[in-house]
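Holo prediction — glutamic acid.
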Amino acid sequence: MSELEGSGYKGKAFQLLQQADCSVGDILKITSKGKTYEGILIPRFGEGVAIIIKMKSGYNIGIEATTEVKVEKIGKGTVPKFEAPQLPKQKPSLPHVVIMSTGGTIASRVDYRTGAVRSAMSASDLYGVVPELADIARVDTEIVYSIYSENLTPQNWTELAQTVAKRIEQGVDGVVIAHGTDTMAYTSAALSFALQNLPVPVILVGAQRSSDRPSSDAATNLIGAVKAAGEAPFAEVGLAMHETVSDIATVIHRGTKVRKCHTSRRDTFKSVNGFPIAKVQNLQITITSDSYQKRDPKRKITLKPHFNDKVALVKFHPGLDPAVIDFYVEKGFKGILLEGSGLGHVSKFCFDAIKRATAKGVVVALASQCIWGRVDMNVYDTGRDLLSFGVVPLEDMFPETGLVKLMWALGQTSDPKEATALLKANVAGEYSPRTLPQEEKLPNEGGN
Ligand code: GLU
């Protein structure tokens, strides 16, 4: 694939650029409507027919690609070389942590010619970029994927769980997984179900700004994650990200109770219907959860890595056509997670379709689209009716964790009764014993 083919340009723009033998990064002269523009060709994101160049002033300009436009290449772009920094020396007395990279912003860098973000850093590059890690742990690195997290699938969760389990069986003191933030909470839930009886922590970590930007949150998050993986007293799947917008502290959220809540803030991840397990500030770990599974290197991990991807998430909304539910049943889906309203409701117009689904052995579960709080399907008739059709209420699990759990349960067994029993069991802290009012404080400090 030429660089132009991966550049995002289509149609007339692609044709003009190809005729002039241009690649991303080349210097172009474009003439349109009697005016001439010079600048570096940058990749095209999203829809549109314009050719985008970065001008000397630093501003980008889009010139509509029409038959009248003339494109000339006046300079060849040089592909910037990323020189991986020298790896810091290992200190034998420190805990042994493996950093696996899967992709995403944390493992990306900015191409300063064009402003594009590229997935380019290996776990070992990350280690080089944050040399402070050498004072926290003996770090081994491994590239598992180089994928934006929206492109990961349940098959990737399976492989990742198997890779992590292998390293843990070899005796590492903790595992860190660098991951894109978009679907990091789905992966943290998936690993929480797949990796049971963990002897040591497994910590996912991401960043909202790539690690080579001065404003990056990657270093603070990585330091918090590696510190927790190597030394924290708990042995669970956690997710480490900024506590607030400033670079002061990292919180480690429980893998099944965390959600991405903001498109761009550094403190985008929040523990929902639960508290973070711990906080790392100035290299000090403070436990913030009442209960957790203790680190015990002698414990034997139980690997249950399979997921069934024939599971659908259906968001209820006024006017939802019940044919949507029938569609999944007809297509052979084994589970449907209903994102119900309020305490756990969907319209009575969907009742017959739900009855048809459960009668066919499809496991139908329900989590609330309110996100915060707990479903209670005994309060109103609607909830009671749904219960009588066999719908499984997912208590205070929010829909994304509920979806992953349903995929996992149906990955363990094809028997709907057994899958329902697994769904109802508290496997990885996904159910909280009681729902706290949101304003209640953390056990140690602060609010949620
Ligand atoms: N969408 C990409 C991903 O989730 C980049 C965003 C990020 O890492 O935060 O991998």
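READOUT: Residues 442-448 have pLDDT under 50 and may be disordered.
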